[in-house]
């Protein structure tokens, strides 16, 4: 069944393949175009470097007028990522614009890894360490990076 | 002063009307007149919309801006056109200038059709091949629009974007371009061009009328559930007391709560908060605690044993939970609370009550009366139906509708008296005693007696009187007396406020 949301997701997939952004990849799951699996590679020169973080992106029929819900499947230690993998990012909530596509979403999340916003913490422990004890923060992140290779 | 004058005036008017009844003259107005009559308008949805358009036209008589831009400007100035005009002509003021510049730059009242301008979104150049920025599909030039900012979307995408903005959760009266962080505002005039669905168009109209009413200092939605009227006052502060909507609901224009004369908005707010906080707590304390018979501190029993030890620092009293007598050194042997003895202790008990329990009892005294009148008011709602039956019956017996209307009026006055009465208990709870409060209490008693008499007659004796004219005479006498007593107590409190006779307890 073709709906505006599904047609748009096909375009998103095509654009992702034609013009792949660096450091992220994603594709619809095998039997449901409304659920995508994606991978974000940890950006260079950050503690997340070399990590391969898995995410699921779930769309509704209101897409692209409503943002999808994006969740890390890999274990994460980041000031703006909740314990359940949910992400606190303005463009996925109130600053959402229907001009975004999957590629833009994944790129934005990737840059969130390099630039956390410790002032609106989803994980207060990570935010505190990020601000006060950067070495311990990096140690905890490294553990997540290694974990990400296994699962 | 002015308020007092108008109050006196409308009071006279009321009496005139009552005299009309006396002479058996049919009254033109079948509504019960209220103090605020003449100062308020009740508007339906269409009238609200027209009133909004009028306000925009009026301001535009001077400024001549596009209508949608004007609406947003007026919204920012809380629909006070004078303030807006003043600000407009004093644009050298940095802050004002910023507001106007911002709106003028961002409000676009006509769509740029197929204007191939600039770049888009994340810097990709898509303008060359006419691609919609939302569905990413190529579109014909005639089918793609922007707001002059270069963010081009096809008609379908515009329409579903606007629909989502209008009917989605975060209903907002100001819709911006769909592109990230673009501040261009979609003018009201564009909306009908892009949306065919009449339901969505209506929703948009509701959205902007809502912003008109909510932000307008002269207007307020009637808070009664399912009522779609709004009440408009003539000038700020025109109405200090309650207003009555066409649906019959009386509420305070200032705070939106149901009418709370003679209390101020602050007092009723404090009281309601107190009731929410305290009533449950008070009930719990009443049910689960007792006062230590020696020091009077409030004690909760935390185990099955009835031998209580007061843990209050200076006390340490041992006593029996059941009969509150001192626990002897030998326990149960010297203690017999199973036998019924007329106790002497109860007499002295009051002296030992702590202040907190006295305060609590005082609160419960007033609260129970307040709650009781609320309960009565609920029960008396049934009277409306009963009275209607009676009126129908009278109709059937060749009494005209206008003639029979005294019954409806009596029920309405009964409701108002109850409303005033329950609020007087809140007033009495907060006010400090002085000579004026003695008069107040007398007035309160009079009103209460009069109200109960009217209620009793309407509930029980209505069917006993066969003679309609006798019944009418009785009901008229009763409700007129009630209404007089209500006015007396309200005026007395009001007068006390203007003469600063009242002082209130800190709570």
Automatic annotation (TrEMBL), chain A:
Annotated signal peptide: none
Q: What keywords are annotated for this sequence in UniProt?
A: ATP-binding, Nucleotide-binding, Transferase, Ubl conjugation pathway
Q: Where are the transmembrane segments?
A: none
**Residues at the active site:** 88 (glycyl thioester intermediate)
Class of the enzyme per the UniProt entry, highest EC level: transferase
Q: Give its E.C. classification number.
A: 2.3.2.23
Tell me where in this chain the UBC core domain is found: 4-150
Q: Which GO terms describe its molecular function?
A: ATP binding; ubiquitin conjugating enzyme activity
**One BP annotation, GO:** DNA repair
SUPFAM superfamilies named among the record's database cross-references? UBC-like (SSF54495)
What is any Pfam family matched here?
UQ_con
The record's section on InterPro entries has: Ub_conjugating_enzyme (IPR050113), UBC (IPR000608), UBQ-conjugating_AS (IPR023313), UBQ-conjugating_enzyme/RWD (IPR016135)
Family assignment?
A: Belongs to the ubiquitin-conjugating enzyme family.
Protein name as annotated:
E2 ubiquitin-conjugating enzyme
Instruction: Give the organism, scientific name.
Output: Folsomia candida (Springtail)
UniProtKB/TrEMBL annotation, chain B:
- List the Pfam families hit by this protein, alphabetically: Ariadne, IBR, IBR_2, UBA_ARI1
Molecular function per GO: ubiquitin protein ligase activity; zinc ion binding
What is the enzyme's class at the highest EC level? transferase
Pathway(s) it belongs to: Protein modification; protein ubiquitination
What family, per the record? Belongs to the RBR family. Ariadne subfamily.
Name the Gene Ontology biological process terms.
Answer: protein ubiquitination
Q: Which UniProt keywords apply?
A: Metal-binding, Repeat, Transferase, Ubl conjugation pathway, Zinc, Zinc-finger
Give the InterPro entries listed for this entry.
Ariadne, ARIH1-like_UBL, E3_UB_ligase_RBR, IBR_dom, Parkin-like_IBR, TRIAD_supradom, Znf_RING, Znf_RING/FYVE/PHD
RING-type domain spans which residues?
Answer: 128-341, 132-172
Reactions catalysed according to its record: [E2 ubiquitin-conjugating enzyme]-S-ubiquitinyl-L-cysteine + [acceptor protein]-L-lysine = [E2 ubiquitin-conjugating enzyme]-L-cysteine + [acceptor protein]-N(6)-ubiquitinyl-L-lysine
Q: Cross-referenced PROSITE patterns, in alphabetical order?
A: TRIAD (PS51873), ZF_RING_2 (PS50089)
Q: What name is this protein filed under?
A: RBR-type E3 ubiquitin transferase
What are its E.C. numbers? 2.3.2.31
